[in-house]
Design brief:
The protein is of the alpha/beta class. The chain has 10 helices and 13 strands. The strands form 3 sheets. Strands 4-3-8-1-2-7 form a 6-stranded antiparallel beta sheet. NADP nicotinamide-adenine-dinucleotide phosphate (NAP) binds next to strand 10, helix 7 and helix 9. The site of NADP nicotinamide-adenine-dinucleotide phosphate (NAP) has 23 residues, from strand 10, helix 7 and helix 9.
């Protein structure tokens, strides 16, 4: 295509027609936790298909859509402006209905997403974030593209009713765990269910009060939030100073098992890891392990295994967000 000035090119594009062609869902509610973190409830035009807790779907917006003020600038070449950018998002779960009762995904007529705004690339050599600066411009009633297929192998699978389920997430990595938690509790799972979330600040725990309410209702449920950038994490002078509470340290020190009130033994525990790849610590064959080990090698040392052929206890599953 010949290089044309953006304004000249834009004149020739019917953006409303593009929206009509590509967008197939509506934002029915947006619940902001803070300016960089929100829950989006989205209703696909064709209704919510059946899916399993833990799965994901793509959301997309046209590159012609505006970006939120205060996010990194992005130059979209004129010949790419009519494209739709898509990203994968785990399907989260509000956990409770309006009466405070457990609300698994199948009881809802919308999909809930838990999304952090990436304002800028984390390095000068990296491309600016594409989707979230546009997504955070949306509000109730706005249209969006949603993938036709909900997919993903990060699911509960076969879990005995009395087994322990350990879910470790960073940031929005708690999203699939919320769906799994609601499913397990709604199905009467009797074993320990541990949902640990590591975030920078307490204010990054959008579902905190819902988890606390679930703990009141279900004796086998443990929600274990931890932070890394609060004064108790950063300032040794602070009373109650604990340093950075990485999930790895909580696991190796035994504090996680203590707080979970469960031995977290590989003979009876299924493990799910989701979010920041550095917390997960997957090293591809021939790759160099990071200086701070992630959860995978630590779990393996403790007798857990990454084994895709076997669904029994001791198995580790993970979902890296980038
Ligand atoms: C299977 C799967 C499920 C996902 N589910 C979610 C979800 O439920 N919620 C969600 O917020 N994101 C989720 N992501 C990440 C999501 O797909 C996008 O990458 C993210 O929203 C940023 O999109 P972007 O286009 O703005 O920036 P991109 O250009 O895609 O990403 C830029 C950089 O932002 C950082 N980043 C990306 N995602 C996150 C994140 N979640 N938290 C912190 N830093 C991040 C990374 O450093 C990444 O390199 C998921 C990713 C995968 C693969
Ligand atoms: N209040 C805010 O302004 C705010 C809050 C949240 C997010 N954001 C934005 O959201 C984006 C993502 O932030 P996020 O906090 O959701 O995700 P994140 O950067 O993945 O951090 C989530 C948690 O994982 C921890 N973590 C990082 N490296 C780890 C490792 N090697 N092992 C174990 N844990 C590790 C982080 O601790 P560390 O403290 O060590 O990073 C943090 O507690 C960023 O672009 C950011 O700008 C802004």
């Amino acid at each position: 295509m010949k290089d044309v000035a953006v304004s000249e090119y834009e004149d020739s594009i019917d953006f409303d027609a593009l929206r009509g062609r590509h967008y197939n869902a509506t934002v029915i509610e947006r619940i902001d936790c803070h300016e960089n973190l929100a829950r989006f409830r989205i209703m696909p035009d064709d209704g919510v298909p059946r899916f399993q807790a833990g799965q994901y779907v793509t959301l997309g917006l046209g590159l012609w859509e505006p970006r939120l003020e205060g996010t990194q600038q992005e130059i979209v070449p004129a010949n790419k402006r009519s494209r739709v950018a898509k990203r994968a998002y785990s399907i989260s779960c509000p956990l409770l209905d309006d009466e405070g009762r457990i609300a698994p995904n199948e009881s809802l007529d919308y999909l809930e997403f838990y999304i952090t705004l990436v304002r800028a690339a984390d390095g000068p050599d990296k491309a600016p974030p594409v989707l979230t600066p546009r997504l955070f411009c949306l509000g109730k009633g706005d249209r969006i593209a949603i993938g036709k297929k909900i997919t993903g192998a990060y699911t509960l699978g076969e879990i005995a009713p009395d087994a322990t389920v350990l879910m470790l997430g960073t940031g929005t990595g708690e999203a699939p765990h919320n769906s799994m938690t609601a499913t397990l509790l709604a199905n009467g799972h009797s074993g320990r269910i541990v949902n640990a979330c590591c975030v920078r600040y307490l204010g990054d725990l959008a579902y905190h009060s819902r988890h606390m309410s679930l703990m009141d209702q279900y004796r086998n449920y443990r929600y274990l939030p931890c932070t890394t950038r609060e004064p108790i994490n950063m300032n040794p002078e602070m009373p109650g100073y604990v340093g950075k509470q990485y999930l790895q340290q909580l696991f190796t020190s035994g504090k996680l098992a203590e707080a979970a009130d469960d031995p977290l033994s590989p003979t009876n525990t299924h493990v799910f890891l989701c979010g920041n790849p550095d917390m997960i610590g997957y090293v591809p064959p021939g790759g160099t392990p990071p200086s701070t080990p992630g959860m995978l090698p630590l779990l393996e040392q403790a007798g857990f295994r990454q084994d895709h052929s076997d669904e029994g206890p001791g198995r580790i599953q993970f979902e890296k967000y980038w």
